[in-house]
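User: Just a sanity check before I run the rest of the batch. Below are the structure tokens for the first item. I only need the designed sequence back.
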């Protein structure tokens, strides 16, 4: 599976942004999909994930209520809607695919990664 994330950009604090991740191949629906992010000088961290059918999602505590993950298996795509953005949300955002049985917050559970898209939130 090849993943490509896009949709990043510059947004003011309090604003919204929607990231997209497109996947190649015909097995997209067999993967749990997740978003991670990496801020400058920091380790990559889990943002949230969605199950294969899209029926369940899981978020890191700091993203709950502000970020929403969705997917469209017919379009081989997963999305990250980010609202009420804060300067501390500035990071490169990555999408990732996992063949694990259940959602994991650890990077090692994910088999495929997109190249990342930069989100910059100005104060």
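Assistant: Here's the designed sequence for the first item:
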């Amino acid at each position: 599976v090849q993943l490509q994330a896009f949709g990043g950009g510059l947004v003011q604090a309090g604003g919204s942004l929607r990231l997209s991740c497109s996947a190649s191949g015909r097995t997209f629906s067999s993967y749990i999909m997740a978003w991670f992010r990496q801020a400058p000088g920091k380790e990559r961290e889990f943002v949230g994930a969605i199950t294969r059918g899209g029926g369940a999602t899981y978020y890191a505590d700091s993203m709950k209520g502000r970020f929403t993950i969705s997917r469209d298996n017919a379009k081989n795509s997963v999305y990250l809607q980010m609202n009420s953005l804060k300067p501390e949300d500035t990071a490169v955002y990555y999408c990732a695919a996992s063949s694990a049985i259940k959602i994991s917050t650890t990077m090692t559970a994910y088999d495929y990664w997109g190249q990342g898209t930069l989100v910059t939130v100005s104060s």
